[in-house]
Prior knowledge:
The complex is a heterotrimer of chains A (251), B (298) and C (303). With 251 residues, chain A is of the alpha/beta class. Chain A has helices at 40-48, 70-76, 93-104, 106-109, 112-117, 124-133, 149-162, 179-194, 206-212, 230-235, 237-244, and strands spanning 2-11, 14-24, 29-33, 55-60, 63-64, 78-81, 167-171, 198-202, 215-220, 223-228. In chain A, the strands form 2 sheets. In chain A, strands 6-7-8-3-9-10 form a 6-stranded mixed β-sheet, with helices on both faces. Chain A has a 4-stranded antiparallel β-sheet with strand order 2-1-4-5, covered by helices on one side. Chain B is mainly alpha-helical and 298 residues long. Chain B has one domain (2-285): ABC transporter involved in vitamin B12 uptake, BtuC. Chain B is globular and about 65 Å long. In chain B, 52% of the residues are buried.
Amino acid sequence: MLKLENLSKHFGGVRAVDDLSIEVNRGEVFGLIGPNGSGKSTTVNLICGVYTPTAGSIRLLGNEISGLTPNRRLVAGVARTFQNIRLFDDMPVWKNLWVAQNSTEDANKHNLLRRWFGGAGSDRDEIDALLEFSGLGGRGGELAGSLAFGEQRRLELARAVAAKPQLLLLDEPAAGMNLDEIKDLAKRIKGLREQGMSIILVEHIMELVMGVTDRIAVLNFGGKIAEGTPDEIQKNSVVQEAYLGKPQDVA
Amino acid sequence: MDDIVFYTVEITQSIIDGVLFGSTYSLIGIGFTLIFGAMHKLNMTYAAASLAGAYIGLVFFTLFDAPAMLVFLAAIVGSAGIGLIVYYICFRYIPVENHLAALMASVGALFFIDEIVIHATNASPLTFPALFDDVMLELGPFGIRGDLLFVFAVSLISMAALWYLLYRTRLGLATRAVSQQGIAAQLCGIDVHRTNGATFVVAGMLGGVAGSMIGASVGILSPLLTLPITIKGLIVTVIGGLGSIPGAIVAGFLVGALENIFLFVRGVNERDMYIMLLLFVFLVFRPHGIFSRRAERD
Amino acid sequence: MEYYLGIAQTIGIHALLGWSAYVLLLTGQLSLAQVGFFAIGAYVSAILTTMFGFHIVPALMVGALLGGFFAMLVGFPALRVKGLMLVVATIAFTQFVSLFFFNVHWRRDVDGVMAGPDSTQGFREIRFYAANGWDTLDVTLFIWLFVLLVMSGLWWLDRSRAGTVLRAVGADDLAAQSSGINLTVAKVTAMTAGGVIAGLAGGLYAHSATYVDHLTFSVLLATFAIAYPIIGGIHSVLGTLAAVIFIQGILIEGLRFLGDWRNILFGLLIILIMNLKPNGIMDARTMRTIKRMFAGGKSADAK
């Protein structure tokens, strides 16, 4: 599905991502973990088009996407959520979903006139279904900014899904969630996988990562230090060292 | 051949005069950039407040026949006071995230200050005391005006004083902390409101220097100066990079020099046109200014 | 009567000017360049009617189109500059246009009389209305025809996909882009549309005033142009009109008795409004209150 080959991103002297190669298979939930500063966010931004690579390639279903702007990547099939929620606060919930849906709808994709001048508010059925899926059924008219934190996170996820992506990138979706909300999120992610979606999950919260992913890559200092199934990663001493330091470091 | 020498000399003379006068633009640019750096907002009144301070100094001159240094001092105090008032009515009580409202409020304050000055002076230009205006230093084929040199020196001294304030005092430390991480600064016990108010006062003092130095160079003060100085001050701030003091300094000299070159080459009617065009071209190639702040990550 | 019609004309023209800034404000672009396009529209249409005998309608159209064209040219470099830097860049642009027209000297012999922009002397001979028998009422209605046209266009925009796209860009351009919106297309289109409206307004202004000079097209006017949508709030098209009526009608005309002091009060009033209602007079909360008032006894339906 997605192939990162020798991907690098340098900011001046800082090598945020260095010669990273990762392959995510279709229909799997792929975890991306690592200590702070390991390059996870940079990798996410590279995949989504916020940053352009210094070197290396990013291929989606075999097609090179590293030259595309973020909006074109969405059309190509990559959708993301943000670590710090970025909803359109002053717009109603349904419009937040509609913006993403409208950008990728097949009928509209190639018809600029229809896409721009059609009345807003068509295609409500799909949006209503998404609202139900997010536990926000019937609340489409409320302003996104007035939702509770957990609800906003669900809306952010729904917005990404509304674009009918092939690949979903979740950037620390569980940050700030309590245990119940995390369990709910895990269920949703599994549900999306059952529907055939490929997902990259960037997270710190290990219960979520270990419980939901099929494979995990561990980053440190911009490079990959380990890759494998959740079990393998948990037993991996290199990973433990990266997170916890060497045994003698614990004074 | 003689023509080339003539033009080179004239242009170099223009550059010299321009850089010397440009130091006042640097100060105005620093003022805008200081406030932007601290609060991430533009204080549109800044140039007008600086000139208004100079007018206050002028009051001492016309009423009490005070010596020039006292006039300058009064201008500094006056500008600082105006700056503090502007802080309270335009920035203190408007929500921090709302940039538009603060901007608009400062525009309203700009109208207000401008109108008061126009009313108080009946819109007629007034003479401003200058120092060393009868002195002319000769340096080969170039003449260095004494009054411009004085202005330049005073500006440099003010910049040095500002540097000392920002990097060697607790207020300066607080200002820098607030500008970089407002919330964290609060958690460290810094009173953000007082610090920002103090920033306006400091900027105001600098503005008073700028206003009186502009008056001293031009020889007169007029409400017609407000708009061009506001625009040029903003251009200096942007070219230097919003939030960068060294940038504002360099850009001030640059704009001063270029202004004079354009004046020499195309005359006073077209001079400002080219400055505006210059800004546009500059922004296309270097949108963040000469010295932009470090790129902020999400 | 003439007096009130005159005020109505001014309000109409300023509303158009305010709306040209409003369209840009939707995308989050604070533009003081609108007066530059206003000036272009004014001079171009005036030159066409006065010096080349055009009828006013095609002249206005050409003025508006050229306003839009130059707006598009400005729109591309404007993409590189954000927030307050854009404010400064657009201030510089407006000043540039004003100074440009200050230096334009182009006169033509029309039926024995010299006509055309004459740098410092201004452009004095814009007499289309008078020469064609239009009276003040005709002119006022003509202006308001365009006002209603633009207002309905913007009202419809808010109900269309395009309007939502523009507002999304204004709310959070990174989120908008990540939701598939092409920022370049959105922002440049907004700038162009703003330029067309401003160019139209300029043409209408020039013919009402019968005399233009570069001083009219100042940064001061540009701040008025952006003040209208800011004070009116971007949540409603009518907000801008309300702000224009408030500022032009009540403040400038109503406080006429205060003579020169009204400008001072004007500044103070803006400060007061911004402190009390930072999101504009017709902000989201006020709009909902008004909507609820009109909904009457029915329970508020969130949809």
